[in-house]
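Why 16S rRNA (Cytosine967-C5)-methyltransferase? Reviewers of the renewal asked for a concrete example.
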Amino acid sequence: MSGYEGDRGGSGGGSSSGGRDGDRGFGDERRSSAGRQRSASRSRGDRSRTSQAPSERRKRTDPARMAAFDVLREVDESDAYANLVLPPLLRERRIRGRDAGFATELTYGTLRLRGRYDAILATCVDRPLPGLDPALLDVLRLGAHQLLGMRVPGHAAVSETVGLARNRVGAGPAQMVNAVLRRVSERPLDEWLSILEKEAPDTLTGLALAESHPLWIARALREALAGNERGVDELADLLAADNAAPRVTLVARPGLVEASDEDAWGDVDLVAGRWAPTALRLEGSDPSGIPAIREGLAGVQDEGSQLVTLALAGVPVEGRDERWLDLCAGPGGKAALLGALAAQRGAALVANEVAPHRARLVRGALAALPDGAVEEVRTGDGREVGTEEPGAYDRVLVDAPCTGLGALRRRPESRWRRTPSDLAALTGLQRELLASALDAVRPGGVVAYVTCSPHLAETQLVVTDVLKKRGDVERLDTPAAVRSALRPGADIPLAERDDVQLWPHVHGTDAMHLTLLRRTA
Ligand SMILES: C[S@@+](CC[C@H](N)C(=O)[O-])C[C@H]1O[C@@H](n2cnc3c(N)ncnc32)[C@H](O)[C@@H]1O
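Here is what the prediction returned.
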């Protein structure tokens, strides 16, 4: 399941641009521009450290690199989510400030760009990568990211990573790490990427390797661009956008908090979002100390998610407009915005979610809404709501479980976890949920079908298939509804279609899909 922001750390963290010309260096008084941690005593000029035996000194391994390695192993061995594992680990080991930034960039950047680095490493290792000890392979990937993605000077990247290998994998593998990373360091990133593209069997494979996407995902994204009236030559930009950590975007829930309320936002720098009137962009990456977030008046939410929710709430319905339903609400990001909007309009929200632990998250997300805004938070199968409560709602949101291919930038490891076989199960469920939502809405009411995937099988094909079977639904002008939801003066580029597909490389949002439908009499 995917598509949620609140419970996976929203921003996805990290600052990797994944760009072809590498990234910024890391330097301050404790972490040198070599990305190497200086001990506090040394930076103070304290000579007592020299009393340590030289062999012990050599074995000291940088805590930031060890933390990155340990998270990579958790991700591999326990299917963990890096952005759930890393922050507590940094806290537990008291890794802070620049060191925490370095560990974060190293972890998330290595995970995102794993495909690129594996293709490069494969040319430097004399046996197939899948035969290597997975821990050793992770060390090599971490070294490759320091060399090619973080501008850590070669000698520091190699020697620190060899130290990490010695500490975590063993002395023998450490020698191999030394030899392999020296070969990696012989060329700059651009040269490596040209080699990958030149030696690939076709252009798409070359691009997928260079921009670190599984081939099936690169192919699906290319088809999605074409199916949404965009040029397939945009694929390189789209894949590159997936490799850049998104800026943290907040939602100021209407009626609960104003952007101008200084006390609510504390000491952080905020700028207005690009599209949604509710969106604020955080200049920095840690929203946890913001009072409005702690109190549930605001949240971390991609601007695309805000825009599709605002579009559903704003599209006109004739007659009664009192009961709104979020059919797949967990963890509750869109439900909280929808509930705030419902409260302003005298309507009430029912939030449904099949997974009990996610229904609990929805309750938490809705806790700050005014009395009367929420009729109920339920745990139940959304596929049954249409038969259990036919025609009972005026507006229904189906934010369907999906592959999440539109939010790859947010979840560093997800592209390597998804497989094409996930699609079959998801698209069946998506059809059933949309059909149920159309039964649950009254004639004249509206349904928003939303995914955070642009995959055509999860978006256009689901809608077309479901509508083929019924004569009581009309497609609405979704671009017009999205335009009406924009902040004043914003002018959003949208394809000439009756649905809307947003794109990271065009709109700076997740690749959200929205189709608005009206149930006819
Ligand atoms: C894309 S997420 C929804 C994200 C949510 N709208 C938000 O903004 O926070 C999809 C949700 O659908 C839930 N889900 C999956 N199958 C479902 C079903 N049959 N009925 C209801 N919810 C379901 C998943 O557990 C997941 O929480």
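The first helix runs from residue 40 to 43. This is the kind of structural detail the renewal will allow us to pursue systematically.
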